[in-house]
Every structure is written in structure tokens, then in C-alpha cells.
Write a structure and sequence with these properties.
This protein is mainly α. It has helices at about 15-20, 35-60, 60-70, 75-85, 90-95, 110-120, and strands at about 100, 105.
Length: about 120
């Protein structure tokens, strides 16, 4: 008899997680081709363009390089470190900042979020 234990592969998920899901989160979901969806697509493109502008103007050159490689090209922090000649820890700091005295400091993502809030962009 097999010693396979199906409970071993169970991943506990809190019930409130499922309450947050929408129809759009379903696998294979295809949005309807209506005016609302088209308007949402246009709004999304506008927001993405604003974020690209923030990346180009508000981030340091190194932060922008890390964001480009990580989010747009799908590179890992280790791969980015190799490409840029820095450690993956420094890449992480450029992307997400560091915690000092219990407060998150620096990082491209924090800069982007703060600028989006100032501009009224809701992510």
C-alpha cells in the first residue's frame, strides 16, 4: 500500500481570502467586450502610462533599472544583481527599501506609491 498522505499537500487558506475573490480572479475568465470593459482598459492604460512617467522622472537611475528588470522583464533579484554587478540584497533595497527603526525607508515601490497617492492614482 502506498504511503502517500494527501493531507501533506493541503495548504491551509483562511476563509476570508475566498471572500475577497471576484469573478475576474477565476481561471479562464474572459471579460465581456462591452463599453464598461473598454473604458476600464483605457483607464488602466492611462494609469500604466502615469506609472511609467513616475519611474522615468521620480526614481534614481539604479532604481529605474531594477524596476524595469524585475517587473517588466521578469528577472529575479539574483539575475538583476548579476546584470548590474551588485548583490541581490542591494537590488532588494533599491526595489523595496529597508526597515530602519521599525519604519520602511526608501525603495522604488515606496516612491511610486507615494507619488501615485499624491496624484490621486488608485492602484
Amino acid at each position: 500500500m502506498s504511503k502517500f498522505n494527501p493531507d501533506f499537500w493541503e495548504i491551509p487558506v483562511p476563509p476570508e481570502y475566498f471572500e475577497q475573490l471576484t469573478t475576474e480572479d477565476a481561471l479562464g475568465y474572459r471579460p465581456p467586450a462591452d463599453e464598461y470593459t473598454a473604458a476600464r482598459r483605457v483607464k488602466r492604460q492611462k494609469v500604466l502610462e502615469q506609472i511609467r512617467q513616475i519611474i522615468a522622472t521620480e526614481l534614481t537611475r539604479r532604481q529605474a533599472e531594477c524596476v524595469q528588470l524585475y517587473f517588466y522583464e521578469g528577472k529575479t533579484q539574483e539575475e538583476i544583481g548579476s546584470i548590474l554587478g551588485i548583490s541581490h540584497r542591494v537590488v532588494s533595497q533599491h526595489l523595496f527599501g529597508v526597515t530602519r527603526n521599525g519604519k520602511q525607508v526608501g525603495g522604488a515601490i515606496n516612491k511610486i506609491r507615494k507619488r501615485c497617492r499624491k496624484l490621486g492614482i488608485h492602484l
